[in-house]
UniProtKB/TrEMBL annotation:
Protein export membrane protein SecD/SecF C-terminal domain sequence ranges: 108-282
Official protein name in the record: Protein-export membrane protein SecF
InterPro entries named among the record's database cross-references: SecD/SecF_arch_bac (IPR022813), SecD/SecF_bac (IPR022645), SecD/SecF_CS (IPR022646), SecD_SecF_C (IPR048634), SecD_SecF_C_bact (IPR055344), SecF_bac (IPR005665)
Organism encoding this protein: Chromohalobacter moromii
Subcellular locations according to the entry: Cell membrane
GO cellular component, one term: plasma membrane
Length: 302
């Protein structure tokens, strides 16, 4: 079967990865993330209509009454509407929102009105950031223990690449970043790591049993051997995520976007970042095969 020359295109792939990373970092630096109510604090109001309303009309009605930053989305069914307000208002804000949205043609009832303090939002933001850093640190230790430190470095940069790309796209397009998106990013770290481990495992196996010293050729053979599995896994996962994106409703819209971006970026990075970096940092057969002296010492042990 014809082998695809993945490593022959690694310099082009590196250039694409660097360009995307620079754009993502620039978007994060100059625009920043559009943090949701979970992190900033504010007011959440849930209402229920008798008939499904047009969300754009609701945004216009709220904007005309001074709620310009209101985020309006469906919640469960098309008749249940969730209104997110960045500011914290008094206890009558729920009734005020109902008064603005209510009409004789389509009456609306207040389901709940909740307040999230800024201190809680700050705490969630800090804890989520620490959680993400801890996850990356654990991944690095795991890969270094299972494989070798050069593999750990490649895996860590690959996962960082995926996370930065997702965050950059959310910042660039001003998409709402809330706890569901954070959960999606943590899921992407696990997905991308799994894909990377599959490729790494085959690379290590082929290096140990191969008689050739051309690392690029060994890497190509390894990636081609795992390609069918990678495409099947990524393809079926994307089918589910596309169904969530188009049919899941507004509540998980950004969640599905983050996962779709993560699957695409993770599949790309497992080949052109994680694997290709091993060539850049000069992985050698000796890094994986114990020397004769080490073998002799092990045989002398009782």
């Amino acid at each position: 079967m014809r082998q695809l020359d993945f490593m022959g295109k690694r310099r082009i792939a590196f250039a694409v990865s660097v360009l995307l990373a620079v754009v993502a970092i620039g978007a994060l630096a100059f625009k920043g993330l559009n943090l949701g109510l979970d992190f900033t604090g504010g007011t959440l109001v849930e209402v229920r209509y008798e008939q499904a309303p047009a969300l754009d009309d609701l945004r216009s009605q709220l904007g005309d009454q001074g709620f310009e930053d209101a985020q309006v989305q469906t919640f469960g069914t098309s008749n249940d509407i969730l209104v997110r307000l960045q500011q914290t208002f008094d206890n009558d804000v729920g009734q005020r929102v109902v008064g603005i949205l209510d009409s004789e043609a389509n009456p609306v009832d207040l389901v709940r009105a909740e307040f999230v303090g800024a201190q809680v939002g700050d705490q969630l933001r800090d804890q989520s950031g620490m959680g993400m850093l801890l996850a990356l640190a654990v991944v690095m230790v795991y890969v270094a223990f299972r494989f070798q430190y050069k593999f750990a470095l490649g895996a860590l940069i690959s996962l960082g690449h995926d996370v930065v790309i997702i965050l950059g796209i959310f910042a660039l397009f001003g998409l709402d970043f809330d706890l569901t998106v954070l959960a999606a990013i943590l899921a992407v770290i696990g997905y991308s790591l799994n894909d990377t481990i599959i490729v790494y495992d085959r690379i290590r196996e082929n290096i140990r049993k191969s008689q050739i010293d051309d690392m690029a050729q060994i890497f190509n053979e390894s990636i081609n051997q795992t390609l069918a599995r990678t495409m099947a896994t990524s393809g079926t996962t994307l089918l589910v995520l596309l169904a969530l994106f188009f049919l899941g409703g507004d509540m998980i819209h950004n969640f599905s976007i983050a996962l779709i971006l993560g699957v695409v970026a993770g599949t790309f990075s497992s080949v052109y970042v994680a694997a290709a970096l091993l060539l850049a940092i000069k992985l050698q057969r000796q890094d994986l095969i114990p020397s004769k002296k080490e073998n002799d010492e092990e045989e002398e042990l009782p």
